[in-house]
Description:
Blueprint: H1 3-6, H2 9-16, H3 18-36, H4 69-93, H5 112-138, H6 146-162, H7 166-184, H8 191-222, H9 227-235, H10 239-264, H11 273-279, H12 282-307, H13 321-339, H14 345-366, H15 373-397, H16 414-417, H17 419-433, H18 439-453, H19 457-483, H20 499-517, H21 520-529
Helix pairs in contact: 3-4, 3-6, 4-5, 4-6, 5-6, 5-12, 5-15, 5-20, 5-21, 6-7, 6-12, 7-8, 7-12, 8-9, 8-10, 8-11, 9-12, 10-12, 11-14, 12-14, 12-15, 13-14, 13-19, 14-15, 14-18, 14-19, 15-17, 15-18, 15-20, 15-21, 17-19, 18-19, 18-20
Amino acid sequence: xDTSLMSSPGVMMLFGLSPILxxxxxxxxxxxxxxxxxxxxxxxxxxxxxxxxxAGPEGxxxxxxAGRAAELALGAAVILFAxxxxxxxxWLVGPENVTATERVAPYLLIxxxxxxxxxxxxxxxxxxxxxxxxxxxEHRIERGEFFPLLVFCTLGAQALxxxxxxxxxxxxxxxxxxxxYCLVGLRRTSVRASEAALKYFLLGSFAAALxxxxxxxLYGATGRTDxxxxxxxxAGLSGDGLEGRAAQIxxxxxxxxxxxxxxxxxxxxxxxxxxxxxxAPTPTTGFMAVAVKTAAVAVLLRxxxxxxxxxxxxxxxxxxxxxLATIAVLSMFIANFIAGRQESVxxxxxxxxxxxxxxxxxxxxxxSRSVDAQASVLFYLLTYTVSTLGAFGALILAGRYRAxxxxxxxxxxxxRRHPAAALAFSFFLISLAGVPPTAGFFGKLYVxxxxxxxxxxxxxxxxxxxxxxxxxxxxxxLVFMYMREPKPGAPFATPMRSGYVATALVIAACFVLGLGIxxxxxxxxxxxxxxxx
Length: 533
């Protein structure tokens, strides 16, 4: 191999940007494949002419992507997993050794922190693409645009984790969010899906506006848009300069926390979450629960630990730690209690994701006192991603067309009729509950350990109490599957058959089990990825 070519700044820059370029170029190719491909009218038996875009018996529109979910899903999964592989390759080489990427700084920061999150969101996106490859054709949602949208949403999440400037941060946030709004409303004939998409769009736009106002205030107070420069300017304020700008900075801090807490889905900014999660197609719900939340936490860490790193803003008297601690406690208690009262399994998982945002925020709060807290948050998000997508994937597997697992009652006796599918569902729910030796157990363990190191004992106690509360509604699913029988004449779930869904579950299960048995490797990577590491 010509080493001079590999040492070329242009080649090195392409290599440093390869995870992002893989998704950007791959998404464009997928758009062409979806637009110019020949439709396969798998379910529109009454269609008379492809060019006329007729409606099938279920009311769906037959377009160029109709009936091609399997091949488009495979293409999307290859693109997204390629992004994850490029992230691993860049990690092994070392982003710090690829100095050519400094040309795109501060708009994109190619460091171990962003590369770690790039791997996590690409992994989550790839699993979601496989789940959609089985779910969409099974449930007669012949919308080929799902897969390019999924790729570009993941691209936005990648860029958001790498954003080092307020401008690139906002562009990446909207790139991710606009695609997700469309994915939520994919089921056009469903009133519930349209309502969920509209509610998410309106509230999401409001949250984005708040963040934009906060960014404007920071620019007005410091004259900078790059995050590091803003942090340095704030740290340098004192005397009269601080007195005149303190209000601006504190209001900007509050606005940015509110906007990002909305994207994370934390209480009290969670109003959109249950309806959006329930109305969206289940693969979209899984993707939203992991990729959107992960990217939002990544940029939250950057904002808090770079922009507002000054000890005055990181103190428990005048800073952000008590605010996030309050959000964490509210998210855990409110979401867990409401989740325990749900009759819909999908809605229960929605509230479960809100509770997990509370656990993540414990780790974020601990970053103000513990050096290990950042790594614990990164490791938790990795374990949460594979466990949550596995749970949603098992829910997809548990229900074929018109025999979906919607409520707990639908799963009554499921374990005896279909033991393999029930075992998969049980495995991922146990991981979400934090039972050893699964990944979920070590995710919570490291977050609580970091909080103990920071002497946040009261947060750890409240987190443990909520872990016990959360175990109730996870175990409730197992009780219905293995210890209840369906009522006479009542509908019950019947598993679907899909190689795509099965493959996605195997990948997720390997990560859940591997991170549970051998967590040290991933934890060491998380330690190496922390900001400033």
